[in-house]
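Quarterly update from the structural biology core.
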Amino acid sequence: MGRMNVDQYREADKLPLVVVLDNVRSQHNVGAVFRTADAMRIERVVLCGICCCPPNQEIHKTALGAEESVEWQYYKETLDAVKDLQAQGYTVYAVEQAHDSITLEEAAEQMVNGKWSNGKLAVILGHEVFGVQQAVVDNCSQCIEIPQYGTKHSMNVSVTAGIVMYRLASSLRLATKK
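Predicted structure, tokenized:
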């Protein structure tokens, strides 16, 4: 199928997109995020708080080796990760339902239309029950949310991460072709 090996992947250009997991407790969710991050060839995953870190057999069950190809970092406090990313020039968004949030589509359109001048983006996804910590949300540029039309008003964090990574990665690829 012409797939890269781990060494080729590590050397390949990545999209300037960082996914930050804020206290995601499920090792399987963490693994799924690694696997999708590999598929989208994003820059890195940042694990914070109670997130478990590789090497970990439970992460490996869903990551299927992506934890070895995707660069990752760990921070004890998510807010420290946010401040470091901002200092590195990233625009940081929380993926959270909140007052004045923008939809994922609006965020993607802004990216394509050049409203994110530096092109470096970080998105934070939160704990499976409690979401992104309020102090972290307060330090982000804005919140992005995925509109939902059913009876539930939340989705699994790894599903949300997959949708967000795919949509933003697609927009980043389109924006960089201009």
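The chain has eight helices and seven strands.
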